[in-house]
Automatic annotation (TrEMBL):
Keywords: Transferase. Residues 10-151 form the N-acetyltransferase domain. The keyword Transferase applies. Transmembrane segments: none annotated. It comes from Taibaiella chishuiensis. One of its GO terms (molecular function) is acyltransferase activity, transferring groups other than amino-acyl groups. PANTHER family: GNAT FAMILY, PUTATIVE (AFU_ORTHOLOGUE AFUA_3G00765)-RELATED-RELATED, N-ACETYLTRANSFERASE DOMAIN-CONTAINING PROTEIN. This is RimJ/RimL family protein N-acetyltransferase.
Length: 178
Protein backbone atom coordinates (compact mmCIF):
# COMPACT_ATOMS: atom_id res chain seq x y z
CA UNK A 1 0.00 0.00 0.00
CA UNK A 2 1.33 3.42 -0.93
CA UNK A 3 1.64 6.01 1.80
CA UNK A 4 1.96 9.06 -0.42
CA UNK A 5 0.94 12.48 0.86
CA UNK A 6 0.23 13.34 -2.79
CA UNK A 7 1.38 12.40 -6.27
CA UNK A 8 2.23 14.07 -9.57
CA UNK A 9 2.09 12.41 -12.97
CA UNK A 10 5.22 10.33 -12.37
CA UNK A 11 6.16 10.90 -8.72
CA UNK A 12 4.94 9.99 -5.25
CA UNK A 13 5.70 12.27 -2.30
CA UNK A 14 5.85 10.85 1.21
CA UNK A 15 7.19 11.37 4.70
CA UNK A 16 10.57 9.86 5.49
CA UNK A 17 11.08 6.28 6.69
CA UNK A 18 14.05 4.88 8.66
CA UNK A 19 14.97 2.81 5.60
CA UNK A 20 15.60 5.99 3.60
CA UNK A 21 18.78 6.82 5.51
CA UNK A 22 21.08 4.58 3.47
CA UNK A 23 19.84 5.83 0.08
CA UNK A 24 19.88 9.50 1.14
CA UNK A 25 23.34 9.08 2.69
CA UNK A 26 24.60 7.82 -0.69
CA UNK A 27 23.24 10.97 -2.37
CA UNK A 28 24.71 13.23 0.33
CA UNK A 29 28.12 11.52 0.00
CA UNK A 30 28.25 12.07 -3.77
CA UNK A 31 30.60 15.00 -4.60
CA UNK A 32 28.80 15.73 -7.88
CA UNK A 33 25.39 16.00 -6.17
CA UNK A 34 26.89 18.16 -3.41
CA UNK A 35 29.05 20.35 -5.63
CA UNK A 36 27.09 23.50 -4.66
CA UNK A 37 27.29 22.75 -0.94
CA UNK A 38 30.28 23.31 1.37
CA UNK A 39 30.88 19.57 1.80
CA UNK A 40 29.39 16.14 1.41
CA UNK A 41 27.46 14.73 4.36
CA UNK A 42 27.93 11.45 6.19
CA UNK A 43 25.35 8.94 7.43
CA UNK A 44 25.02 10.62 10.84
CA UNK A 45 24.37 14.03 9.25
CA UNK A 46 21.86 12.41 6.88
CA UNK A 47 20.04 10.72 9.76
CA UNK A 48 19.83 14.08 11.56
CA UNK A 49 18.44 15.70 8.38
CA UNK A 50 15.77 12.99 8.03
CA UNK A 51 14.86 13.34 11.71
CA UNK A 52 14.50 17.11 11.21
CA UNK A 53 12.26 16.52 8.17
CA UNK A 54 10.06 14.05 10.10
CA UNK A 55 9.66 16.59 12.92
CA UNK A 56 8.89 19.37 10.45
CA UNK A 57 6.23 17.22 8.80
CA UNK A 58 4.66 16.41 12.18
CA UNK A 59 4.65 20.09 13.19
CA UNK A 60 3.65 21.80 9.92
CA UNK A 61 2.33 19.16 7.52
CA UNK A 62 5.16 19.56 5.02
CA UNK A 63 8.86 18.85 4.59
CA UNK A 64 11.38 18.09 1.92
CA UNK A 65 9.42 14.96 0.95
CA UNK A 66 11.02 11.64 0.09
CA UNK A 67 10.17 11.06 -3.59
CA UNK A 68 9.66 7.86 -5.55
CA UNK A 69 8.83 7.18 -9.17
CA UNK A 70 5.29 5.82 -9.39
CA UNK A 71 5.96 3.36 -12.22
CA UNK A 72 9.06 1.70 -10.76
CA UNK A 73 8.57 2.57 -7.06
CA UNK A 74 12.19 3.75 -7.18
CA UNK A 75 13.35 6.19 -4.49
CA UNK A 76 15.10 9.12 -6.21
CA UNK A 77 15.73 11.73 -3.49
CA UNK A 78 13.72 14.63 -2.11
CA UNK A 79 11.59 17.50 -3.37
CA UNK A 80 9.54 19.64 -1.07
CA UNK A 81 9.11 22.49 1.35
CA UNK A 82 10.90 23.50 4.54
CA UNK A 83 10.64 26.22 7.15
CA UNK A 84 13.73 28.45 7.12
CA UNK A 85 14.77 30.98 9.75
CA UNK A 86 18.40 31.77 8.89
CA UNK A 87 19.35 35.44 8.76
CA UNK A 88 18.21 36.81 5.38
CA UNK A 89 15.90 39.64 4.28
CA UNK A 90 13.14 37.17 3.30
CA UNK A 91 13.17 34.88 6.37
CA UNK A 92 11.38 33.39 8.13
CA UNK A 93 9.85 31.72 5.10
CA UNK A 94 8.77 28.49 3.47
CA UNK A 95 11.52 27.38 1.15
CA UNK A 96 11.38 24.89 -1.69
CA UNK A 97 14.25 22.52 -2.36
CA UNK A 98 15.24 19.34 -4.16
CA UNK A 99 18.12 16.89 -4.21
CA UNK A 100 18.01 13.92 -6.55
CA UNK A 101 20.38 11.07 -7.26
CA UNK A 102 22.32 11.51 -10.54
CA UNK A 103 20.42 8.68 -12.26
CA UNK A 104 17.27 10.81 -11.92
CA UNK A 105 18.80 13.95 -13.45
CA UNK A 106 17.73 15.24 -16.84
CA UNK A 107 14.30 13.59 -16.75
CA UNK A 108 12.28 16.61 -15.62
CA UNK A 109 11.61 15.18 -12.15
CA UNK A 110 12.78 18.29 -10.25
CA UNK A 111 10.57 20.56 -12.34
CA UNK A 112 7.55 18.23 -12.19
CA UNK A 113 7.97 17.70 -8.46
CA UNK A 114 8.51 21.38 -7.70
CA UNK A 115 5.34 22.33 -9.61
CA UNK A 116 3.37 19.73 -7.66
CA UNK A 117 4.79 20.98 -4.37
CA UNK A 118 3.77 24.54 -5.26
CA UNK A 119 0.23 23.31 -5.91
CA UNK A 120 0.28 21.62 -2.50
CA UNK A 121 1.71 24.77 -0.85
CA UNK A 122 -0.92 27.12 -2.23
CA UNK A 123 -4.01 24.90 -2.52
CA UNK A 124 -3.63 22.56 0.46
CA UNK A 125 -1.56 24.58 2.92
CA UNK A 126 -2.89 28.02 1.94
CA UNK A 127 0.57 29.59 1.79
CA UNK A 128 0.95 33.04 0.24
CA UNK A 129 4.58 32.74 -0.83
CA UNK A 130 7.28 30.14 -1.43
CA UNK A 131 10.97 31.01 -1.71
CA UNK A 132 13.77 29.03 -3.34
CA UNK A 133 17.45 29.83 -3.05
CA UNK A 134 20.64 28.63 -4.70
CA UNK A 135 24.22 29.76 -5.05
CA UNK A 136 24.48 32.01 -8.09
CA UNK A 137 26.79 29.44 -9.72
CA UNK A 138 24.11 26.70 -9.53
CA UNK A 139 22.52 27.39 -12.91
CA UNK A 140 20.62 24.09 -13.04
CA UNK A 141 18.64 24.80 -9.87
CA UNK A 142 18.04 28.39 -10.95
CA UNK A 143 16.71 27.06 -14.27
CA UNK A 144 14.21 24.85 -12.39
CA UNK A 145 13.07 27.90 -10.39
CA UNK A 146 12.48 29.80 -13.62
CA UNK A 147 10.70 26.86 -15.28
CA UNK A 148 8.17 26.63 -12.45
CA UNK A 149 7.33 30.33 -12.69
CA UNK A 150 9.38 31.72 -9.82
CA UNK A 151 10.72 35.26 -10.19
CA UNK A 152 14.03 36.69 -8.93
CA UNK A 153 13.63 38.36 -5.55
CA UNK A 154 17.19 39.35 -4.62
CA UNK A 155 20.82 38.34 -4.40
CA UNK A 156 22.28 37.82 -0.93
CA UNK A 157 25.22 36.34 0.91
CA UNK A 158 23.96 33.15 2.55
CA UNK A 159 25.01 33.20 6.22
CA UNK A 160 25.77 29.46 6.19
CA UNK A 161 28.12 29.86 3.21
CA UNK A 162 30.23 32.87 4.26
CA UNK A 163 33.33 30.68 4.63
CA UNK A 164 32.90 29.52 1.03
CA UNK A 165 33.45 32.48 -1.31
CA UNK A 166 32.59 30.43 -4.40
CA UNK A 167 29.13 29.65 -2.95
CA UNK A 168 28.22 32.52 -0.62
CA UNK A 169 26.57 34.76 -3.24
CA UNK A 170 23.10 33.30 -3.64
CA UNK A 171 19.89 34.21 -5.37
CA UNK A 172 16.41 34.00 -3.90
CA UNK A 173 13.39 33.47 -6.12
CA UNK A 174 9.77 33.73 -5.02
CA UNK A 175 6.28 32.84 -6.16
CA UNK A 176 2.79 33.33 -4.78
CA UNK A 177 -0.51 31.64 -5.59
CA UNK A 178 -1.68 32.03 -9.19
Amino acid sequence: MDNYCFTSTRLGFRNWLPGDITAMAAINANPEVMRYFPATQDREQTAAFIDRMQKLYAARGFCYFAVETLAEKEWIGFIGLAWQEYDAPFTPCVDMGWRLKPEAWGKGYATEGAKRCLHFAFNDLGLQQVIATAPLVNRKSIRVMEQIGMKPLLQFKHPALLAHPELELCVAYSIGPA
